[in-house]
Amino acid sequence: MDPINIQLLQKALKDEDEMITKFKGDRDDSNLEIEQQRAKSNISRKTQVHEINRSLIAECARLDERCHDENVDFVTKFEKSLVGFLRKGFEDQRVYFAQQRKEERAVFNMAFTKLFHQTEAYIKNERENNDNIHMKLMKQLDELEIVHSKVKSLIDFSIHEAQGRAKMNVQVPDGIYMPRGKFLRLMDNECGLDVVMRFKVHMVKQLYYDLQKYDDERDDIGQVTLYNSENTTIEYHKMVEILDPFGYTGDAELYYLLPVPGINLLDGLKRINGAEDVKLMVDDHAKAGTKICHLYLVNRSESPNMTSPREESPNMTSPREDSPDMTSPREDS
User: Fold this and answer.
1) Burial class (CB in 10 A: 0-12, 13-18, 19+), 108
2) Contact 265, 196 (CB under 8 A)
């Protein structure tokens, strides 16, 4: 190979190497400059971002403050508006309710006034009725006191006369026999020590189980008393003699009422058919400690001999003919 060509080739290679080295240096400088520019750019960008963030934060703070102020103003204005609206609504309601209460009070006053006048008129009417009833009751009470005085006088006279006869050892009917409508009341506690037994004789056409002991218009009532005398006992034949003036016959039914306070006829009536029944009657009244015996004479004779007792009864005398209320039994009993 030609040495000149070799030298030229070597020189060309050397020049190429120098150019490559220079190119590499330029590239390194360029890269370094680029890196520096990039670093500066990053720093600048970060600075700008920081500034932007600061600006945004400041702007957000200003916006928050402005929003807060606007919210406060809005709330204040809304509260004022709401308070005004509520006050107006409450005032309207107050006026409405006041008017309604006024109308209701007027209606109530009218109704109360009407009721007051009606009540006053009713009380006045009732007072007049009560005064009339009181006057009638006082008049009836005066009449009852007069009747009571007459009956008491009759009973006192009968008791006094009977006591006088008892001293002579006789037995007498009391002579008290009258229609039920004129009979006041024969009390059940009027027996003295000289009385063996006193019979209250109820005379009815049939046995009413709701019949009252007193104050019943369906019966006639009489009374007869046995007084203490020698060998005086209550026997069946004596009861037949005693009840003969009251219309007791063999066809009539005779009952006695058990001496139990408050007992009714349905439970308390016992039939008397003979001596054993009379003995039971005496025992029942002895156990009860009473001398008052209520007899019920059913379907008696329509014409009892009240003016002439049987002659064969040696211990019986006729009822007093001067008894003021002595009458025959009612025809409508």
Assistant:
1) exposed
2) no
CA distance 328 to 13: 189
Q: 214-245: per-residue pLDDT in tens?
A: 666 777 788 888 887 655 678 888 888 888 88
Residue 232 gets the label, from left (phi > 0), alpha (psi -120 to 50) or beta, of beta
**Do the beta carbons of residue 208 and residue 298 sit within 8 Å?**
no
Rounded CA separation 215/73 (Å) = 99
CA distance 225 to 319: 11
Sheet holding 220-227, edge to edge: 172-178, 220-227, 195-204, 292-298, 253-257, 269-271
Separation between Cα atoms, residue 123 and residue 121, nearest integer Å: 5
Per-residue H/E/C for 283-332: HHHHHHCCCEEEEEEECCCCCCCCCCCCCCCCCCCCCCCCCCCCCCCCCC
Contacts of 290 by beta carbon, 8 Å cutoff, 6+ apart: 188, 259
**Is pLDDT above 80 for 164?**
no
Asked if residue 294 lies in contact with residue 202, where contact means CB atoms within 8 angstroms, the answer is yes
CA distances from 67 to 46, 63, 74, 77, 126 (A): 30, 6, 10, 15, 83
Asked whether 211 and 204 are in contact (CB, 8 A), the reply is yes
Q: Is 204 helix (H, G, I), strand (E, B) or coil?
A: strand
- Among candidate residues 245, 255, 277, 153, the one with its CA nearest the CA of residue 206: 255
- Closest among 263, 124, 295 to 199, alpha carbons compared: 295
pTM for the complete prediction? 0.39
Chain segment 1-58, per-residue pLDDT in tens: 567 777 777 788 888 888 888 888 888 888 888 888 888 888 988 888 888 988 889 8
- Spatial distance between the Cα atoms of 308 and 300, rounded to a whole number of angstroms: 17
What does the alpha-carbon distance between residue 294 and residue 258 come to, in Å, rounded to a whole number? Answer: 8
Across the chain, mean pLDDT equals 76
